Amino acid sequence: MKNKLLMLTVAMSCAFAGNAMALTKAEYKTQKDQISADYKANRDKCGTLKDNAKDICVSEAKGTEKVAKAELEAQYKPSAKHTRDVAMAKADAAYDTAKEKCDDLAGNAKDVCVKDAKAAHVKAKEDAKVAKVATDTTVNKTEKVNEAKKDANAEKREADYKAAKERCDSLTGTAKDTCQADAKAKFGM
Is there a contact between 74 and 17 (Cβ–Cβ < 8 Å)? Predict the structure, then answer.
């Protein structure tokens, strides 16, 4: 899975690099203006909605704009940093929207939803960090990649554990104790 993600990141970087040469400053500005116009149009569509549905719609519109801007920047000035910024923008947009969707829930279900969203966000961020380190061209690349993977796996495991632990909170008595013990064992906590 991680190798596929890495390959995809490299392939996208190459695609952006190929397209960047054809993107002039005027085309960049035109596309940037189009992104802003699209955002305003998408946000205006949210005006007819009410309550949390409106909040979700606005979050999706903002997320789409952030991702589009990050992709445009990566296309205009290809680099490992901009490729990582695209991945981070996608992760942040998905997280913000997921949190808004959790607002429709209450109690433990809401808490579990938020923890699951946070776990997905941590996973995406850590994968982006590993992909950025993998593009490093220094002598110690292998060591750095291995260290980044180790750190990423620890962060992911911790986020997954917190989400699993939150699921256990809806239980009581022995079932709760068993659930928490299983979560600790599964995630090595």
Answer: no
Asked whether 70 and 86 are in contact (CB, 8 A), the reply is yes
Contact 112, 170 (CB under 8 A): yes
Residue located via tokens 């993107």? 23
pTM: 0.74
Structure tokens at 15: 């695609």
Q: Which of 12, 2, 23 is nearest to 83 (CA)?
A: 12
Distance CA 2, CA 48 (A): 41
Q: Residue 179 is encoded by which pair of tokens?
A: 């659930």
**pLDDT for 50-90, tens place per residue?**
999 999 999 999 999 999 999 999 999 888 888 889 999 99
